[in-house]
Design brief:
The structure is a homodimer. By secondary structure, chain A is α/β, with parallel strands linked by helices. The first copy, chain A, has two domains: about 5-20 and about 105-235, 3-Layer(aba) Sandwich (Rossmann fold), CATH 3.40.50.1000; about 20-105, Orthogonal Bundle (DNA polymerase, domain 1). Helices cover about 45% and strands about 10% of the residues of chain A. Chain A has helices at about 20-35, 40-50, 55-60, 70-85, 95-100, 115-120, 135-145, 155, 165-175, 190-195, 230-235, and strands at about 10, 125-130, 150-155, 180-185, 200-205, 225. The interface between A and B is medium-sized, with 19 and 19 residues. Chains A, B: Keywords: Hydrolase. Chains A, B: It is an enzyme of class 3 (hydrolase). Chains A, B: Its EC number is 3.8.1.2. Chains A, B: One of its GO terms (molecular function) is (S)-2-haloacid dehalogenase activity.
Chain lengths: ~240, ~240
């Protein structure tokens, strides 16, 4: 298990590379105030939106519905969140919801993300392996300066992580063996699924992804190939 | 028809952005000499290989066989070229052919390509819309410094240009309307197919793509939205 084996690093994005909670809450605060609510509810709004993320993808993974890109699932989930927050959907223009849905396209990277990716790009192919769709990843990269070699992930694979097909198809598109691809994530479950498919694994903790009271994924919980403090530390461990 | 309408520029690659003939001939010359042949045959070798490109894709477009990535078609075509050149396939190690097949991954950009793409990237999403597969495009971009926002094209669309699905699926992945996407190519037939699908079109001539005696695509032959001398000129016309 040496770095020399690796040809590509693929990355989880929401939470691992960007601060989805802070970014969504920032835009939700403006939205909530516009509709007579308090900006204090913005974190809860972001959490409620994100809480519907896995169940929505599970309906695709289970075969209950065909593959839909994440922007579509986010938009459906947003309508449910409005309802949960007692906001009358009929009084919100569709264009305003469409724009709020794009908050996910405008998330900011963590402070170490761009430097870490830039270092890793000097030796490896780097690409997102996210459940976010291609356009979402393109917009986010242009917003935050993420220097991708390619945009991979759920929409290219037509499968959502942690389904094995999602990992296998990304490896196939890269024309590499699984052991030549390293999955980088702040989530142990993502790495466990990647490892089952034969990929290398690297964990970096993001202890504030869910806010100050986070209780999950505070540390590596599997036998991962690399564990690093952040993305710059991972790059150093990989010799770049 | 103003530049303000456009959100993305997608590019033909072989011939439009990179010199496939010079790059393939350079590696073919070494191969030919290793097998007791003259480097003088290298241009003809490159032309013979490229001549099998459209017929091979046509078997996919017609439905005669399922979608295969271009690396597979190139590899099959290479075996035919060996035969046409009277080289005994049995005496060439497979690994040597695999490596020669990667000549397509190592093509050099034309002198204006990187500057033109870099300028265009400052305002637009830029992505290859090539019949080359994703890994081929990634390797070529790393080799030549092409600053893509994403890698699109045949493998993502699972369809080869000029099939309409190839253009439609790329527009769909970008979540744009066809008129917000500009197809850039040195080939009038590519632009004609893109225009039929509602895309904007930009022509740049590459009069030496096929060598000094080239007779095709020397000038714009359709009602394209933009006609430029090269990619830097196109960027200027588009205001960047």
């Amino acid at each position: 298990m040496t770095r020399a084996d690796i040809k590509a690093c693929v990355f989880d994005v929401f939470g691992t590379l960007v601060d989805w909670r802070g970014g969504v809450a920032r835009e939700a605060a403006v939205f909530l105030q516009r509709h007579g609510r308090s900006a204090q509810e913005a974190d809860a709004f972001a959490d409620a939106w994100r809480a519907r993320y896995q169940p929505a993808m599970e309906r695709v993974r289970s075969g209950e519905r065909p593959f839909m890109r994440l922007d579509v699932l986010h938009r459906e989930n947003l309508e449910e969140v409005l309802s949960a927050f007692g906001i009358n959907r009929a009084q919100v223009p569709a264009g305003e919801l469409d724009d709020l849905n794009l908050a996910w396209h405008r998330l900011d990277p963590w402070p170490d993300t761009v430097e870490g990716l830039t270092r890793l790009k000097s030796r490896f192919i780097i690409a997102p392996h996210s459940n976010g769709n291609v356009k979402l990843m393109i917009d986010m990269a242009k917003h935050g300066g993420l220097p991708w070699d390619a945009i991979l992930g759920a929409e290219v694979a037509q499968a959502y992580k942690p389904a094995p097909e999602a990992y296998r198809r990304v490896v196939d598109v890269l024309m590499l063996s699984p052991a030549e691809v390293c999955m980088v994530a702040a989530h142990n479950s993502d790495l466990a699924a990647a490892q089952m498919c034969g990929l290398r694994t690297a964990f970096i903790p993001r202890p504030h992804e869910h806010g100050a009271a986070q209780t999950t994924d505070l540390k590596a919980e599997g036998n991962w190939d690399w564990v690093a403090r952040d993305l710059v530390d991972l790059a150093k461990q990989l010799g770049v």
